[in-house]
Amino acid sequence: MMNETLLELKDIHKSFGKNHIHKGISLTLQKGESLGLLGGSGTGKSVLLRSIVGLERVDRGEILFHGKRIDQLNEDELTPYRIKISYSFQTGALFDSIDVFENIAYPLFEHTHYSYSQIKDKVKEMLSLIDLPGKEELMPSDLSGGMQKRVGMARAMILNPEIVLYDEPTAGLDPANTLNVVSLMQRLKDKGLASIFVTHDIPAALMLCDRIVVLHEGRIVFNDTPIKFQNSNDPIVKKFNVSKD
Amino acid sequence: MRHELQVILNKKIERIREFFIFVGEIFSLFFQTINCTFSGKFYFDRLMEQIYHLGFGSTSITVVIGLTMGLVMTLNFGYGLTKFGGTLYVPAVISLSLAREMAPLFTSLLVAGRVGSGIAAEIGAMNVTQQVDAIRALGTSPVRVLVVPRFWALVLSLPLLSALSFAVGIIGGMIVCKTEFDIIPGFYFSKVFSTVKIHDYLSGIVKSAVFAGIITIFACYKGLSTKDGTKGVGASTTWVVVTASILILVTDFFISKIFLVIWN
């Protein structure tokens, strides 16, 4: 892991009506680093990811990518950053009216000038990476939940982003599918991809992440290595640390 | 008492504020649609796909409504005018009514029900399943990808559907004129062509294009702002059909007035 800051969040505040979700969140993500974001339900983990890619607007604070502020950009200005920071949705969010090939190829058709045969090869390569070779012609409705998530991850990965934001990629999956998704994330991490991993799956977070961040009541209460997370005596952190008990 | 009045007043002010925000968002979506059409990538294949779905897909119901309008109107006008010895005026009355009002209006109302609800349901379902968010997160614009092709597909298709409805209605009128009032087709068509002027056709075409814009912008707006899962999708479709139908009827009056002022 190189010591180069890719992403920096400074004093992020976000409210929905009277519900103050983030009360001053600051964190950084280094090149090649995997950061696990933990917290109870409703603590704004997904909102934080959505804010980073501009799907939600922050009320106060700054989001910087390679030192450039991106939280105030409009939709058109955000486009190049959304190519570099990709978002893997909790449900996969596949386009249900088109097949697996078109779903994965969508960013390539939109943002590159590759020929159709080049795109076909890249999709084939990506399907092999996610262990779903030959599934190009299936519709999203023909896939299991785990397969949909992996196709969603492939779509997020196809443009070789610098950062991937995973929103609960293992939620609702059986152990076999969880293992598939986690091993895919490990392979991508090994390729040097930086990521923020929102999850309730503590063993997966401990296995994959270089750093664990715990959100509680709108603030970061823990931000350190997995080892220190496991040895923490903080009562809030201990609640998440099932592996210690 | 004073406090209650204050609460009521505040609610009214809030509703007025929400109404103006809604109007602003509708206009914003319309201008974004126009802007996206003339700048950046244009999805020609999606436009063709939507013309097929929205336009060709509405052909059969257009034929049915056109033929029914022609048959029923001719029957009623025919018997009404016969009482006053005005049977020979039936082709003129029917053709003018169909060209200026009935064909564009009824076709648009029918399409508002079929297409408007379909667009709202499709985009609404995409919105609640995060597919619209995915379009944004992948660095593309939902307006460019979803709204622009639908908008232009219907703006191009609806005038053609209205023209089809008019043509079929005229044929329906001819059938009734021949069978019920002994008006021969030759006389019928000569009266139709001599009565209906170019501006009457133009009036119908412009109206249909405006109605198409109303249907798609309102349907796409509602689809993109759909919340609350499948319940929200259902509510959006109902809202679009009712709102678009009312707006079509109101707008029809104003466009008719404008055309009458211009051509008379």
Quick description:
Chain A has 245 residues and is of the alpha/beta class. Chain A has helices at 45-52, 75-84, 100-111, 116-129, 145-157, 175-190, 202-208, 226-231, 235-240; strands at residues 5-16, 19-30, 34-39, 60-65, 68-69, 85-88, 163-167, 194-198, 211-216, 219-224. Chain A has 9 helices and 10 strands.
What's the topology here?
The complex is a heterodimer of chains A (245) and B (264).
Chain A: E1 5-16, E2 19-30, E3 34-39, H1 45-52, E4 60-65, E5 68-69, H2 75-84, E6 85-88, H3 100-111, H4 116-129, H5 145-157, E7 163-167, H6 175-190, E8 194-198, H7 202-208, E9 211-216, E10 219-224, H8 226-231, H9 235-240
Parallel strand pairs in A: 3-8, 3-9, 6-7, 7-8
Antiparallel strand pairs in A: 1-2, 1-4, 4-5, 9-10
Chain B: H1 2-38, H2 44-55, H3 59-82, H4 90-128, H5 131-137, H6 142-181, H7 185-195, H8 198-224, H9 229-263
Structure description:
The complex is a heterodimer of chains A (245) and B (264). With 245 residues, chain A is an alpha/beta fold. Chain A has a domain at 5-92 and 164-244: P-loop containing nucleotide triphosphate hydrolases (Rossmann fold). Chain A is built from nine helices and ten strands. Chain A is globular, with a radius of gyration of 18 Å. Helix content of chain B is 88%, strand content 0%. Chain B has 264 residues and is an all-alpha fold. The model of chain B has no long low-confidence stretch (mean pLDDT 92). The radius of gyration of chain B is 22 Å and the shape is globular. Chain A binds chain B through residues 50, 53-55, 75-76, 78-80, 82-83, 86-87, 89, 91, 93-96, 106-107, 110-111, 155, and chain B through 41, 126, 129-131, 133-134, 136-141.
